[in-house]
Amino acid sequence: MTTAISVQNLGKQYKIGAAETKFRYNMLRDVIVDTVSAPIRLAKALVGKSDRRLNQNFIWALNDVSFDLDEGKVLGIVGRNGAGKSTLLKILSRVTEPTTGTVSVRGRVGSLLEVGTGFHPELTGRENIYMNGAILGMKRSQIDRNFDAIVDFSEVGQFIDTPVKRYSSGMYLRLAFAVAAHLEPDILVVDEVLAVGDAEFQRKCIGKMNDVAQQGRTVLFVSHNMSAILRLTQEAIVLKKGQLIKRAPTPEAVDFYLASGQAESGERVWEADEIPMASAPFKPVAIKIKERSGAVVDTIRSTEPVVIEFEYQLDAPVTGLRVGMYLNTMRGEYVFTAFDTDDAQQFEQFGARTAGRYVSRCEIPADFFNEGRYYLGVNASSFGVKRFFMDENAISFNVDISGAPGTQWPELRQGPIRPRLNWKIEKLD
Amino acid sequence: MTQITNVPSHEPTTIYIKPTKGLAALNLRDLWTYRELIFFMVWRDVKVKYKQTLLGMAWAVIQPVMTMLVFTFLFDKVAKLPTEGIPYPVFSFTALLPWGLFVVALNQGSRSLVAHNNMVTKIYFPRLILPMSSVFAGLVDFAIAFVILIALMIYYQVTPAWNLLWTLPFFLLLAIITALGVALWLSAVNVKYRDVNQALPFLTQFWLFATPVAYSASVVSAKWQILYSLNPMAGVVNGFRWALLGAGNGPDITLWVSVTISILIFISGLFYFRSMEKTFADTI
Predict the structure, then answer these.
(1) Which residues does A contribute to its contact with B (CB < 8 Å)?
(2) In-domain check, residue B177
(3) What's the mean pLDDT in A235-253?
(4) Which of A299, B71, B136, B174 could link A398 by a cystine bridge, Cβ 3.0 to 4.6 Å?
């Protein structure tokens, strides 16, 4: 069997912190001082010396990662935000250069993360297919050959000669995906793309990925969705803080990831290097799972209410803010999504928040969870404006069901919830 | 960005990705592989430029003609600058041709990487394509304006300098190399320091005054001529006037100074661009 991808001692170092301190003016005085010192800064930049105000912190987004992948295999990549998954894919698709190590890639890498790159709103669907195809490295003849298939696949048919700015977002996405899907890469890289688009579109993406795998081509699949990883890959690697910590058959790797990669203590504290720059002014501090007594726990009792506490810092006032969570089962099925300002009155009071430290706390009632492990994702956003922060995998916890409804029968109950329903039994005759 | 070694064997070829050290190889072969992309980028720029405008391609005519009219009023009717016996409209329009090409290339080219940051951060392609295609897209406007120049020459009954016309492609090439060289430098710097965006309007204006577009290079006194020709666009504009209208003394030492500077800017720009290329996706 031939090796499709061989990664050796791969490392990628990023400079962080620069953007953070750069434009922090608190007073007019700072602005004046900054302006006056501008020529000095320019001189330093020109001779290649960096501004010393920018604190030069380096992080290794990838550190000494090595693995080989045989041709025709489908490999899942799991890990928390910031674990280095995207960096790895970027290096493989040659967008960015590694700091250390080497990669050899056999054949052309195509990625579904480039969907729609280079699309111009003023050009028609037809023109964009050619444009986008060329950007993705297709030859004109190859685009000609695949043109009808692309149009068919995208289902935009009669609108093919309409500027894409008139398309609905769904049509736009389908057309963009159709081009990327007909790229005929030897190695396909899929990163979180399944998070966008409607259910039908996601089904198509997964179908395409399956096709590619069936044709004996190599696929790398990055996702936070464990059920998708389990369904689509046979083998997976787990990345943690830039290092490869596990490679195993997928079920084993997923279990390992969910069990060990998580905070085991019922508390997750965000370190400075785990918070993406783009999340400013929102800064997550910690999330805690508590019993009603206030004790922080990793295992909760199904028969007791549980309190979720999310602490965060706002460095600047934010309007329209909602902070909330997703609850997932271990297999990646959603149980619910809820935000702290879901209540209209609450939103009126707290939609606009001044800078400062906050905690959003909620109680999940007793008799809610079924047996097993659940994980919580957090999200802070202003609807339709900006998603400040998201960590789909912030923390996980176990549920102990002793005393829950139906536990007199030692059997596995299906479904993520185990409510205590108000059964009434009547005799009718 | 990355050193690519294509193993000369059957498909699919193996690509080796590793950190590049020192000055990156120019890797022109990769540029050749992606030649169709240059064509598509130019085609897109041209196609999109005048979309949803009432006057469309007419803008390619209006812009230089209006500039020429303003110049004619200011420098011919009011200031009465010498034009070596050539009607002022033709005299200035001949210079506005390469100057227009240069301005478009300078402005679009310098912003090209930042403007296409979604491409830069998502996919691999030789980054040189972006400033290159911006410069080439300016050639379309140049061609349209050239037709206007011919009309003007017929109207003012200016006979072209037939024996010199063959040198025109050389001066056009010099204009392209100068524009591309500057665009390579500024686009790469712009990735890291957006100060370039702020400096561009000022730079363009300053450069226009330092170039004999509105006036004749002969107004500069002889002892300053060499210093003056350090501006490669001075060489280009003088060359255009000489090749088309037979104005001026023709190539002398000042032209070769301009040519040397132009090539220096281009080559150094190429290497600077290539050495910065590997960090574009991280810093943009």
Answers:
(1) 14, 42, 45, 90-108, 111, 113-114, 117-118, 120, 122-123, 127, 130-131, 134-137, 139-140, 186
(2) yes
(3) 90
(4) A299
The CATH 2.70.50.60 portion of chain A extends over: 267-400
Task: From residue A324, give the alpha-carbon distance in Å to each of A191, B211, B271.
Answer: 24, 61, 49
Mean pLDDT for chain B overall: 84
| Residue B186 binned pLDDT confidence (cut-offs 50, 70, 90) | very high
pLDDT at A38 over 70: yes
In a domain, B163, yes or no: yes
Phi then psi for residue B89, to 5 deg, are: -55, -45
CATH of domain A61-260: 3.40.50.300
pLDDT over 90 at B72, yes or no:
no
pLDDT at residue A53, rounded to an integer:
47
Contact criterion met (CB below 8 Å) for A170 and A197: yes
Minimal C-alpha gap between A204 and chain B (Å) = 22
- Indicate if the pLDDT at residue B4 is higher than 70: no
Q: Which of B49, B124, B130, B274 to mutate to test the interface with A (most CBs of A within 10 A)?
A: B124
Whether the per-residue pLDDT at A43 is higher than 70: the answer is: yes
Min Cα distance A420 → chain B (Å) is 50
Amino acid identity for residue A98 in this structure: P
**Structural domain of residue B78, as residue ranges?**
39-283
Alpha-helical runs (H) found in A182-289? 199-214, 226-232, 250-260
User: Is B14 part of a structural domain of the chain?
Assistant: no
**Contact A137/B121, CB-based, under 8 Å?**
no
Supply the ipTM of this predicted assembly.
Answer: 0.78
With beta carbons under 8 A apart, name residues in chain B contacting A105.
Answer: 14-15, 17
pLDDT tens-digit readout, B149-183: 999 999 988 888 777 788 889 999 999 999 999 99
* Interchain proximity A135–B281, CB inside 8 Å: no
Residues of chain A found within 8 Å of residue B14, distances taken between Cβ atoms: 104-107
List the single residue in B16, B34, B278 with the smallest CB-CB distance to A102: B16
Asked if A94 lies within 8 A of B15 by C-beta distance, the reply is: yes
- In this structure, the strands spanning A282-291 and A267-269 are antiparallel
Residue with tokens 């606009």: A352
> Total structural domains in chain B?
1
Q: What is the largest CA-CA distance in chain B?
A: 71
Highest-confidence segment of A10-24, A52-66, A182-196, A370-384: A370-384
The reply to whether B15 falls in a domain is no
The answer to whether residue A237 scores a pLDDT higher than 90 is yes
Closest partner residue to A135 among B2, B37, B52, by Cβ?
B37
The model's pLDDT over A268-298, given as tens digits with 9 standing for 90+, comes to: 888 877 788 888 889 999 999 998 888 888 7
Q: Is the pLDDT confidence value at A170 over 80?
A: no
Residues of each domain in chain A carrying CATH 3.40.50.300: 61-260
Measured in whole angstroms, the distance separating CA A335 from the mean position of its chain's CA atoms is: 18
The partner residue sitting opposite B124, judged by closest CB among A95, A127, A130, is A95
Q: Which DSSP symbol is given to A175?
A: H
Q: What are the CB-based long-range contacts (under 8 Å, 24+) for A208-216?
A: A208/A177, A208/A181, A209/A74, A212/A185, A212/A188, A213/A72, A213/A74, A216/A71, A216/A72
